[in-house]
Amino acid sequence: MVLRDWLEGLGYELVQGSLDREVTEVVYDSRKVVSGAVFVCMAGTRVDSHGFVPQVLKAGARVLVTERGIEGEMARSGLSPEELADVTVLRTEDGRRALALLSAARFGYPAKKMITIGVTGTKGKTTTTHMIKAILEAAGKKVGMIGTTGIVIGDTVTPTMNTTPESWQLHQAFSQMAKSGCQYMIMEVSSQGIKMHRVDGITFDYGIFTNISPDHIGPDEHADFEEYLYYKSRILNMCKVGLVNANDSHFKAVVRNASCAIHTYSVLEEGEGVPDADFTASNIRYVSRPDFVGTEFDVKGRYEMDVRLGIPGLFNVDNALAAVSICSFLDLSKERISHALEHVRVNGRMEIVHTSARCTVLVDYAHNAVSMESLLSTLRQYHPKRLVVVFGCGGNRSKERRYSMGEIGGRLADLSIVTADNSRFEKVEDIIADIRGSIEKTGGVFIEIPDRREAIEYSITHARPGDMVAVIGKGHEDYQEINGVRYHFLDREVIEEVVNRLGDEA
Asked: In this predicted model, what pLDDT tens digit does every residue of 372-423 receive, in sequence order?
């Protein structure tokens, strides 16, 4: 491939060299440079990769994309004047944007070969993407997905460091999806992913904005809520059709500068909501039976159908409505949509692991006071005989989280079973002691079982008919971190082991 064929949309100055040089790869890690590579220099908050120019030149790179002058770095490379003169140097304003555009070109713009759906928001991204994936697969479509659970292509899951991976990794994944026959690609789009230009150059066919509330504000994230909102709302400038939650209190600010066609959705509950939204959910029923725990509701507006959702909670009605609304544009059977949502499961997100006449047991990722309160309040709507919560708190984290979660457990649960989470370098007993103090102030009923496996087993073996047991804090995580070592541990597996051992008694 010739370099100039990779430069579409990239603003740059040709400092020296030729645009007709043969290139084979785009690299941003100096350790991965190969002959024929284009090396993209980026000045980050911790590392400035311009400093690696001497090494990458010695390794055979002859095309450099930079954000500043690198004459000094080139001189320190040890290459002869003739060799240095043969190096092509492009200067651009933002190396991260350059990396994204070059990566898209290097892989042949694979995102354009699929129908693409991007989902952003403070809450609900993971669940909404999983719901859309379930619907599409129920309709016989092949789907690729990128998000919290990693890169998913068929049955293959590749873990990632970030919700929205680096741009090169993204386009590599898109390429693999397209080659494997994926017709659709769904991904979680984080505000950091947008801010760091990881999704530059991608135009989503559909974009979803679920909601926004203060989060990810601080060092190495966003300076304030205004910046956070700005980057979240940018997805509406990166898609052809945008779907936005009209119930969100920041709705007007979110859509103010949108350039896509905007559609809205709204959950109508207890006089709340926007009745004239394009898509609405109403007549919401909370269903709890030995064979089914979830919600039922009616979709009205531009699309009409009855939905039976196999995940509890009002906030999951929001997520399901977003999924239904987007899928209404895709010419899918309502029967397939209905079947998928009734049977959908999202690992660690209100995941019903067991339900019977004896009890219902679910797993959720709720690991702070806000999410714990929302979860337990939601489960109260199903009127369990007792609401039992199994939880702990992470070590080497703010003690305020322990106090607040203990208070909520004591106030909203009929029984709190306090146990280990990821204790890290703290003693489990010390963490439990902090939680204990706040529960005691509420007068709530609790017991302490430091071993998490034993705590889960106790919650099931001592369940009473009609109980609902929520095992929270770890969700999809498949490990416990103790003294710097990660040991395999998955709440769902432990629950299934106990249920299988009990047999008909469960």
From this structure: 998 999 999 999 999 999 999 999 988 999 999 999 999 999 999 999 999 9
Question: 214 or 197: whose pLDDT is higher?
Answer: 197
Q: Is the pTM of this model over 0.90?
A: no
Question: With DSSP H G I counted as helix, E B as strand and the rest as coil, what are the percentages for the chain, rounded to 5?
Answer: 35, 25, 35
Q: Where in the chain is the domain with CATH 3.40.1190.10?
A: 108-343
pLDDT given for residue 168 in this prediction: 97
Q: Let me know: does 265 contact 279? Beta carbons within 8 Å.
A: yes
In sequence order, the 6+-apart residues with CB closer than 8 A to the CB of 213 are 122, 123
Both structure tokens of 246: 């009209």
Please choose, from the candidates 433, 445, 376, 377, the residue with its C-alpha nearest in 3D space to the C-alpha of residue 402.
Answer: 433
69 and 78 Cβ atoms separated by less than 8 Å:
no
- Quick one: tokens of 422? 């990821």
Query: The domain 351-505 is classified under which CATH number: 2.170.150.40, 3.90.190.20, 1.10.357.10, 3.40.1030.10?
Result: 3.90.190.20
For 294-309, b/e burial (b = at least 16 CB within 10 A) is bbbbebbbebeeebbb
Q: How far apart are CA 185 and CA 136, in angstroms?
A: 10
Residue ranges matching CATH 3.90.190.20 in the chain: 351-505
Backbone angles phi, psi at 285, to 5 degrees: -120, 135
Average pLDDT, stretch 437-447? 97
Q: What is the CATH number of domain 108-343?
A: 3.40.1190.10
Provide the 10 A C-beta neighbour count for residue 77.
17
Spatial contact of 126 and 349, defined as CB atoms under 8 Å apart: yes
CATH 3.40.1390.10 location in the chain = 3-105
Position 455 confidence tier, pLDDT thresholds 50, 70, 90: very high
Q: How many residues does the chain have?
A: 506
- The third-level CATH classification (topology) of the domain covering 3-105 is 3.40.1390
Backbone angles phi, psi at 353, to 5 degrees: -90, -35
Full 3-state SS string of 216-269: CECCCCECCHHHHHHHHHHHHHCEEEEEEECCCCCHHHHHCCCCCEEEEEEECE
